[in-house]
Every structure is written in C-alpha cells, then in structure tokens.
Design goal:
By secondary structure, the chain is α/β, with parallel strands linked by helices. It is built from 14 helices and 15 strands. The protein is about 40% helix and about 20% strand. The structure holds adenosine-5'-triphosphate (ATP) and magnesium ion (MG). Adenosine-5'-triphosphate (ATP) binds next to helix 8.
C-alpha cells in the first residue's frame, strides 16, 4: 500500500491540518453525495441511478476494487495517525509547520512513512523525536532515518511487531561446507524482514558488544568458524575465559588465554608481520592485499577485550593498547582483520582511540541506550536504534552497523557446542590436509 504526495500539508493552520487529514474521506463523500443528488434530480434519475448501482455492485463484488477503496481509506487514516503524533510530539519547523507526509507503506514490521520537513529545518531534527513519537503512537519503537540524497526527507519507521520474539535462531548456512573463503561475505543471520544479513570481513574490523549472555561469543564463533574453514586464513585467538574460543585452537597459529604477557607477545608478532607485509606490498608496488595473493588474510579474534585492555601493570596496559591500536588502525590494507567482543566498551574500559577505529559494530542486547550508543556510535539510540529495546530473552539479536551506514536489526545464526566441535574438527583436518599437500 503506497500513496505519494509531495508537500501536502504545507501552509496550513493547526485546524487546517486536521481538516486536510480528512480530505480523502471528504472527496469520497462529496462524490457520493453528488451522484445521489444527480440520481434524485428529475432529469438524471434513470442514468445516474444505473451508474450508482453499477459502481456499488462493482465495489461490492470485485475484490480488487474493494481492496483499493479499503487501502485508500487506510492510508488516509495512517496519515492522520502520524500527523496527530507529530503534533503532540512538537515536531514543528521554525515556521511552526509540521513535516508533510510524502508516502505511507505497510511493511512486515509495521508502517514506513517518508516525511518532508518544513522549510528552514532538516531531517536530522526528527532524529531526537523517536521516543516521543513512539509514545504518541503507542508503539514499541520508532526508527528515524533520512534520504541520503535529500536532507529534507526523513524516514519514519513505526515498528509494531517483533518478528524475532516468536522465531528461534537459524542454523548457519556455511555449517555444511567443506571449505570456505573469507574473501566472501560471511552469513551472520536474518534481518527483521527475513533477508539474509552477511558481513564482508576483508578491510574491516568488527566490534561486538552487549550485556552478559547477549550472544557476543556465539556471534564471534561464527566468524572464527568461517576463518578456520578457510585453510588460507591465519588465525590468532585471544580469549580471557578460554572456553569460548578453545575449540578452534587446533586451527590457530596462537591461542592466548588469560595471560597479558602472552597477549602482548602475540600482538607484537602480528604488528611485526604487518610491517613485513607493508614492505612486501611496497616492493611489489601494490597498495593492499587481494584474493589469490601470496599474503593470506589474518584474523585476530579477541573475546573479553576489556579484560586484556585493563591489564593491571601500567606498562603492560600501555603496550597492549598501543599494539592493538596499531593493528586495528594500520591492518586494513595488510589483510589483518580484528574481531573483538566485550561486555562494556565504555571509555574507561576500551579507550575511544581504539574503539573508534572499528569500522563495523554490532550491539547485542544492552542494559541502557547509552551503552548501545557506546558500541554503535553516538546518537543512534535517540534515532530509535537502541539495543536496549531488544527483548532480553532474544539471544543473538542485535543491531549491526556495517556497509549500509544504518544499523540493521538482525538475529544471528547459532552454532551449538556440537556444531562447533564438528566444524572445529573439520577445519583442523582441512588444514592438516593442506599442510600434507605441502601447499
Ligand atoms: N543466536 C543465538 N540463538 C540462540 N541462543 C543463543 C544465541 N546466542 C547465544 N545464545 C545462548 O545464549 C548463551 C549466552 O551466549 P554467549 O555466551 O554468546 O553470550 P555473551 O554475550 O558472550 O555473554 P558473556 O558476556 O557472559 O560472555 C549461550 O550459551 C546460548 O545458550
Ligand atoms: Mg562471551
């Protein structure tokens, strides 16, 4: 269901706005009245009565016409619904005008509106109204976006349903593959409209955050599985709890548990390798590694990042932070990918000079909108993209901020312990076979 109308409510007073919202019904009622009036007049009785009769029978009998009429009335009522909410939320331009509703579309999640803000304002002004609008509309969530090509047009997505509440996690599509390539996008899960969500890791670093038990380690294990099943990929694992990444240790060059000195040593080696790679690229007159290169991708998976960054000894802490910052900031073109998970990446735990370098973020369920913003970046929660709104029972659900530039709510695939053990064993065999070939 879609209706388009540019600048529909410009220049109307408050009362005018309200009356304008009823224009569809008014036009329909006026048309009906005119026809009936014609039918009642002495000259038009026969012909007009026939038209009224035929029109009535058509609307009644032809399903598509009935649906069209219902859809027109529904769009009009949805427009009034949002206009009322915008009025009570105080979403006015400097001239005192409300944004005008350009289009209305029913989507699986609820209703998507596109609105054009009044002259003198911009779409960003609606961003901070997400919660106000949700309250005025009496819905669970409202998410505000903007049209990339036009700063005066904002998207208002009214979320009325949570498709993840009833559905469980789906199996990982790559679980049955004999081998993978990390140059391909890794399947992560499904979004709220059932579309596959994938993440392309080369040239990116990924930060996963969320409250305890939100599903960070489970998501991390998907990416580690994808890396382990690509025999070309060199894997380094740091896991302060040990149990999450231990199953993949057989496929890794290095596995570090709760040991700061070992973590520093491993990061030193990775930085040295990064320097060697830049040297090799320079000699080859190339700017970055590419598929099929002599230089394989490196994946560094870190679970419980905060634990490592909070090393007690100051010199160790400084070196660890500096090595990690170096790896994340310069690793992109050298094919070094860092994927880190942590409960609370706030400034006192993960310094901003490290956190801000992660180009991809995923916020699983958080306890506050502020902690969601800490992961995704400042301001997303006020636009309605808050991981606090995720149902606490929905494990593995989070907002992924990646290529699209706007967070996408998705539910991650899940590998249970048995699936992890099976994949890890297959990855080891694959790698052993590759070594046996001498390749
Ligand atoms: N996508 C998922 N689908 C179904 N269940 C999941 C999913 N992800 C996680 N779980 C369940 O939630 C539990 C906690 O997940 P996980 O260990 O990944 O959380 P976490 O965020 O890493 O927690 P912590 O901060 O304590 O390490 C898992 O043991 C599993 O039972
Ligand atoms: Mg964990």
């Amino acid at each position: 269901m879609r209706s388009r109308r540019w600048g529909a409510t410009h220049g109307h007073s408050q009362v005018g706005h309200r009356a304008w919202g009823w224009r569809t019904e008014f036009v329909l009622a006026a048309s009906l009245a005119a026809i009936l009036d014609g039918a009642a007049s002495p000259g038009g009785r026969g012909g007009t009565a026939l038209i009224v009769g035929i029109a009535g029978v058509l609307v009644w009998k032809v399903g598509s016409l009935r649906q069209l009429l219902a859809s027109v009335l529904r769009v009009a009522s949805l427009r009034r619904w949002l206009a009322r909410a915008m009025r009570v939320s105080g979403v006015f331009g400097i001239t005192g005008r409300l944004p005008s509703i350009i289009s209305v579309e029913l989507v699986p999640l609820g209703v998507r509106f596109w609105v054009e803000v009044a002259r003198g304002t911009h779409a960003g002004q609606l961003h901070h109204q997400a919660e106000h609008l949700a309250a005025a509309l009496k819905v669970r969530e409202v998410r505000i976006g903007r049209l990339r090509s036009d700063a005066s047009v904002a998207e208002v997505l009214v979320v009325r349903r949570d498709p993840f509440q009833s559905a469980g996690s789906s199996p990982w599509p790559w679980a049955e593959m004999a081998a993978t390539s990390l140059w391909r996008s890794v399947p992560l899960g499904f979004d709220e409209e059932g579309r596959a969500v994938q993440v392309s890791l080369p040239e990116h670093n990924l930060l996963l955050g969320g409250e305890p038990g939100a599903g960070k380690s489970a998501v991390l294990s998907l990416f580690v599985a994808a890396a382990a099943l690509d025999p070309d990929v060199r894997l380094t694992l740091l896991d302060a709890k040990q149990v999450e990444l231990a199953p993949w240790a057989g496929s890794a060059d290095a596995f570090v548990g709760a040991s700061i000195p070992e973590a520093i040593e491993v990061l030193r080696e990775l930085c040295a390798e990064m320097d060697r790679r830049y040297g090799a690229l320079l000699t080859a007159k190339r700017r970055k590694v590419a598929p099929g290169d002599e230089l394989p991708l490196y994946v560094v998976a870190i679970d419980e990042l905060a634990w490592f960054l909070r090393a007690e000894k100051r010199d160790e802490r400084t070196e660890l932070q500096e090595r990690l910052r170096d790896l994340v900031s310069r690793g992109r073109a050298a094919g070094m990918i860092v994927i880190a998970a942590t409960q609370k990446p706030s400034n006192d735990v993960v310094p901003t000079f490290i956190r801000d370098l992660f180009s991809f973020r995923m916020a699983l369920r958080c306890t506050t909108p502020e902690s969601s913003d800490t992961i995704l970046g400042q301001g997303w929660a006020s636009q309605g993209y808050s991981a606090q709104a995720i149902d606490p029972s929905s494990r593995g659900v989070g907002f992924l901020l990646a290529e699209g530039g706007v967070p996408v709510k998705c539910r991650a695939h899940y590998l249970d312990d048995e699936a992890v053990a099976d994949l890890a064993r297959r990855a080891e065999l694959l790698r052993a076979g590759r070594r046996g070939d001498g390749s």
